[in-house]
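Researcher: Let's do a round of design. I'm pasting the structure tokens now; please hold your answer until I've finished.
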């Protein structure tokens, strides 16, 4: 796609060649958007049909993707990196995925569980549900006071099917043999 945009930039405004280059770039953008939409539809259908409970986290996407530009008095730091992160977060289309999961889970008889973004999932044992409020982000291993064996933090958090106040089914109980 960059070469097509470069071709467009090298054309003379108002020329027939420029209009042709604009149509090519527009067609490429359309193909990308169709592929993204198809990928989101396939993902949400698979989640809604394979799992009995689909859990999503209620995130503040607008707050996560706010500009880091700052003001004249207090200019922002790492503005370019933050802009790239914002683009990546918005490219994932979390609102569209949640919207589609909302209606597809009701179509296919699954349940959509919306988890609070402040629920301490990485401070909760996946086996017994015990929480350790003293755990910090620097702690990479979770030592459960009840179960005993340490687990790495990302794998120690409850899986997608175990939600606060939910069915209590662990994610590995509901995973199919092949996704």
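Researcher: That's everything. Go ahead.
Model: Designed sequence:
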């Amino acid at each position: 796609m960059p070469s097509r945009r470069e071709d467009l930039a090298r054309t003379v405004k108002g020329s027939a060649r420029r209009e042709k280059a604009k149509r090519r770039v527009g067609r490429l953008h359309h193909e990308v958007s169709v592929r993204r939409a198809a990928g989101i539809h396939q993902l949400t259908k698979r989640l809604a049909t394979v799992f009995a409970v689909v859990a999503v986290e209620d995130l503040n996407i607008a707050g996560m993707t706010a500009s880091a530009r700052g003001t004249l008095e207090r200019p922002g730091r790492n503005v370019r990196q933050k802009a790239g992160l914002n683009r990546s977060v918005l490219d994932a289309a979390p609102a569209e995925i949640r919207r589609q999961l909302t209606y597809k889970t009701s179509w296919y008889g699954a349940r959509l569980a919306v988890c609070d973004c402040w629920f301490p999932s990485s401070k909760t044992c996946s086996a017994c549900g015990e929480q350790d409020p003293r755990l910090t982000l620097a702690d990479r291993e979770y030592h459960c006071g009840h179960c005993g064996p340490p687990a790495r933090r990302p794998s120690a958090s409850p899986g997608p099917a175990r939600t606060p106040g939910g069915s209590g089914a662990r994610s590995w109980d509901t995973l199919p043999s092949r996704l």
